[in-house]
Amino acid sequence: MIKKEMIAMLLAGGQGSRLGVLTSKLAKPAVAFGGKYKIIDFPLSNCINSGIDTVGVLTQYRPLRLNQHIGIGIPWDLDRSIGGVTVLPPYEKSENSQWYTGTANAIYQNIEYINYYNPEYVLILSGDHIYKMDYEVMLDHHKAMNADITLATYEVPMEEASRFGVVITDDEGVIQEFEEKPEKPRSNKASMGIYIFKWSVLKKALEDLKDVPSCDFGKHIIPHCHEHGSKVVSYDFKGYWKDVGTLGSYWEANMELVDIIPEFNLYEEFWRIYTKSDILPPQYIDEAGEVTESIVGEGTEVYGKVSHCVIGSGVTIGKGAVVKDSIIMNGTVIGEGCVVDKAIIAENVSVGDNCELGIGDDVPNEKKPNIYSFGLVTIGENSTIPEGVKIGKNTAIFGPTDKSEYPDGLLKSGSSLIKVGDEA
What we know:
Blueprint: E1 6-11, E2 32-33, E3 37-38, H1 41-49, E4 54-58, H2 64-70, E5 84-88, H3 103-108, H4 111-117, E6 121-126, E7 129-131, H5 135-144, E8 149-155, E9 165-169, E10 175-180, E11 189-198, H6 199-208, H7 217-227, E12 232-236, E13 241-243, H8 247-256, E14 284-285, E15 290-292, E16 295-296, E17 301-302, E18 305-307, E19 310-311, E20 316-317, E21 322-324, E22 327-328, E23 333-334, E24 339-341, E25 343-345, E26 350-351, E27 356-359, E28 377-379, E29 384-385, E30 390-392, E31 395-398, E32 410-411, E33 416-418
Parallel strand pairs: 1-4, 1-6, 4-5, 8-12, 14-17, 15-18, 16-19, 17-20, 18-21, 19-22, 20-23, 21-24, 22-25, 23-26, 24-27, 25-28, 26-29, 27-30, 28-31, 30-32, 31-33
Antiparallel strand pairs: 2-3, 6-11, 7-13, 8-11, 9-10
């Protein structure tokens, strides 16, 4: 019988609706980050760097490209004959079939997978955070505290604590109370959505709560275990951690990478971030081109000026174009003479010559002000922008567009131009 001390279950099925058009046709963990990576690369790299060689990745929403990216796990050294990485989509069972309805329900539907490895501990991870963490250190803390459950916590500013599930602990770090997104938080210790469970404790809780609709760890499993006498402790994480769930936080986290001394270093030898890489030629910067404070991916050609940007691979920046404070993903073409200011442009977008992006007043988006904000221009993958148009702030574009859709050649601030159904 196989026996693993700890296996990881990585929840990567989320739609990431707060990323708007970026996730219209893509699971959030498969969204690009830092030019050459995907968001899911970070927890997967943390696993192998922490000595965890068995990872179940639970997928659901638009999993195709996430599955293609993970493959058999070669980039992360997770192509193992025993263990390794396994993609776990919902599947049909004889008695009934259902989608994963909550984070804990997704784990419950895969009890068989976990039982196969007969682990002592199960590590639950989220697929949409940017951070480096040694899970082995967290496991040592879990054992030293003789805990049933350990929650990784992160101290957030008190004024932001109401956005998170927060915990109240005693002096030893044993959790006394939970508050899920409290209006008036009494603590700023936010749960990071990273848990270590004794498998026996988790299994019983999953079976006890199997009929709870949309069963979730933060709302159901952990409070249930706490009420039934489980010892729940916090593990205070002091490193860099970013939830990139909104366009603003996603843009900020990318921009932090190109600071003179970045707070988050992607290139540390002792804690490498691994990814699936295509074999591409090196970057080309033309004589008339200029790049400052930027990450530029392989195979990218720069004929204009780029400053404080994260540029993916295979991108073309046309002659005379000026691109600043922006994220440009793989395969996108920015035409000649364009001015791009504070934009997030997804993969394989074509921006015609002499366009201006990010002009005008910072007014709220008319349809989705809570998503398209932060003064950003957001353009979904495979979109086309006709030449010579101007696009304001807090705007969203998705799909092939033509000049007739820009009154007087302008998409004014706060407008959306979504061409592909109602998917964004």
